[in-house]
Amino acid sequence: MKSGSYEMDSSPLLDLERLGEDVPLLEGIRTTRAIRRLGNGPVPLGLIRKVVEAGTFAPSGGNRQPWIYVAVTGEEDKAWFAERYREVFSAYIAPARQAAQSPDYPAAKRRNMESAIYLAEHMHEVPVLLFVAGWKRRGEPQHQALYPSIQNVLLACRAVGLGACITSLHLAFGAEVDRRLGLSEDRPTAAMLPIGWPLIPYKRPVRRSVDECLFYERYKGG
Ligand SMILES: Cc1cc2nc3c(=O)[nH]c(=O)nc-3n(C[C@H](O)[C@H](O)[C@H](O)COP(=O)(O)O)c2cc1C
């Protein structure tokens, strides 16, 4: 599928109803990874609606469904956000950059670092910055109530062929972001998912084996 060859809203080349409906669930789960290398071809807003709708099927405490999604596509807003994200990111990634100078730095960590750097450098070009906010409860942000919904959105992106990733570094300037998005203090953002057409394929990510994580009856690890 060629990016940039369809309109933002009416998508003559994409059947939004059917797109992504045939990916087997477990295969989709096993091949969803952080995709930060994203093309700048437009993403139909109907498709954003579809992946966010998957997010609304998540469980939440008391079925309160506290999620709020704000999809940002405007150039000025993306540039504003990208500039601030890059500043926080460059401080965050500095120790890894330093460590990666060693030839012994693990290849998987190096790839992850390079992809995070790529995203930071191209954040302003990402077609959609999808902010996830939620109602506070008893004065506290409820990030745990949002993450099942966020994961559903990532899986739906995988199903329809979009690339996406969780980011949370903007929490360092979260109040500023929230004000700009029109979110009141009792509805803070928890994460931001950059979404676009992937420049790299979906595939199985590097993970610890289940046999290291699963125990029967008692924990027997160290
Ligand atoms: C809570 C959370 C916060 C994250 N924040 C960021 C972030 O700010 N920037 C970023 O590039 N990646 C961020 N990530 C993505 C992780 O680095 C990524 O999911 C992890 O390295 C696994 O990548 P993989 O699925 O490609 O193996 C975050 C992930 C989680 C779960």
Walk me through the structure.
It is a single chain. With 222 residues, the protein is mainly α. The chain has a domain of 150 residues: NADH Oxidase. 40% of the residues lie in helices and 9% in strands. The chain is built from seven helices and three strands, in the order H-H-E-H-H-E-H-H-E-H. Strands 1-2-3 form a three-stranded antiparallel β-sheet, with helices on both faces. It is globular and about 45 Å long. Bound molecules: flavin mononucleotide (FMN). Flavin mononucleotide (FMN) binds next to helix 4.
In CATH terms, the superfamily of the domain at 37-186 is: NADH Oxidase
The best one-word shape is globular
Q: Taking Cα atoms only, what radius of gyration do you get, to the nearest Å?
A: 18 Å
Using the 3D structure, state the CATH architecture of the domain at 37-186.
3-Layer(aba) Sandwich
**Low-confidence segments:** 1-8
The main β sheet shows up as: 3 strands, antiparallel
Task: Please count the helical segments.
Answer: 7
In CATH, the topology of the domain at 37-186 is named NADH Oxidase
Strand fraction equals 5-15%
Tally of DSSP β-strands: 3
CATH class of the domain at 37-186 reads Alpha Beta
> Helical proportion?
25-40%
Mean pLDDT across every amino acid position = 94
Structural class: mainly alpha
Strand order of the largest sheet: 1-2-3
What is the string of SSEs from the N terminus onward? Answer: HHEHHEHHEH
Q: What small ligands are held by the chains?
A: flavin mononucleotide
> Ends: how far apart?
48 Å
Quaternary organisation of the protein chains:
single chain
